[in-house]
Amino acid sequence: MLTKEEDYQKKSLKNLKVKIKEEMKKIFIKTFGCQMNVYDSKRIADLMKKYGYEETDKISEGDIILFNTCHIREKAAEKVFSDLGRAKKVKNVREKQGKDTIIVVMGCVVQAEDDVIIKRAPYVDIALGPLAYHKLPELLKKVLSKRDSEEGNNFGLIDTEFYAEPKFDYLPDNKSQGACSFLAIQEGCDNFCTYCVVPYTRGIEYSRPIEDVLKEAKSLVNTGTLEINLLGQNVNSYHGEDKNGKERNIAYLINKLAEIDGLKRIRYTTSYPADVDDDLIEAHKNIKELMPYLHLPIQAGSDIILKAMNRRYSASEYLRLVEKLLKANSEIGFSSDFIVGFPGESDKDFEKTIRIVNEVKFIQAFSFKYSQRAGTPAAIMKNQIEENVKTERLQILQDLLFSYQNKFNKDCIDKTMPVLFEQKGRHKGQLVGRTPYMQNLYAEADFNCINKLIDVKIIDATTNSLKGEKVKG
Ligand code: SF4
Q: Are 105 and 185 within one domain?
């Protein structure tokens, strides 16, 4: 039982904590697109924390409202402009409450369309390309001092430089937020696939030095990470320097990471088929921490289309690679990306995509209709495919892909798999985790199973998830 004085002190401390929390500046971040963007958003949140900004999931609380954008698909880019309109309304409301709001747009849309942003959203304060986001604190300072010295608020500051010094050197240590963490090892791409904006938005390939990656990995493991997913637009073209200045490949890096005590799982994404070398295949054979799930985008099954896409492999080379990987590790399950209705794709070409799916039997896949991205060679190809043909082909392809995914999941029933539990499920007493094959697994489990790797027997499956037997902590 507390004395009156102790009770008073306790309440005062609580009120003080609430007040400090209320007075702390807040940053609202919305992320569009790929895992690299998710990683970048986390790093920007870490960076801004150093400058006194706490992350919030309520846009109305944001002293900074930041959109980290994606330019891969037209819909994603359009969505940014509708969200910017919403941010403007929030800014107006906050202004009436006497609160300032800084609107920031970051990422690939800025790199590709900064002029469009200026025109369509002149109230944006800061626009940063994906290689310039470490400059946010500096630009923020400039915008705030500009506010103090000038009337009105027109478009603020744009930075779309491809900096020679990598942004990673300016970011604070990356700490775990759970058992699974992303770690960017490579950025940019030199492949220039004819439909893709990445080489124009993220620049040419850059690989982080081995020691930097290992340092970040150790920091993540020391703060609770059990699984690291190595990220890069073309991750397996990684060629980072070791401490002696010698270039090393991703297989070397994976070997080094596997030596970290406490790191249980390693994944990498997104890989490019033509850059899978024998060392990497060997790593799939020898390194037990490397998960037997490989995302290996083929995009199309016709050599004519692959050539038009400027992919540097043929369908038969892709199949040979799959064979080699399975020889090294027969447990590997493949996932892939597909684009249907690429300019010039005939019925015959599309049939070849279907044939590849039937041969590889992908366990998961992402498939999309081709959409024109301004500034890419494919956008101005004459032989664009009609929308209804694309829709029809996508339906056929997805039905087939889902049937293989469903079969793979159903075949897991009665098997026992190691599951890394990451968070609570939708239902009371339920947790969600991931199998080695990136399947979501739901099971009744004690809360203390979160962030643990536990063997679970699969008792049911759908196309999108597995159900596990009850787990005890
Ligand atoms: S390899 Fe991937 S990131 Fe690089 S240009 Fe092709 S699709 Fe874009």
A: no
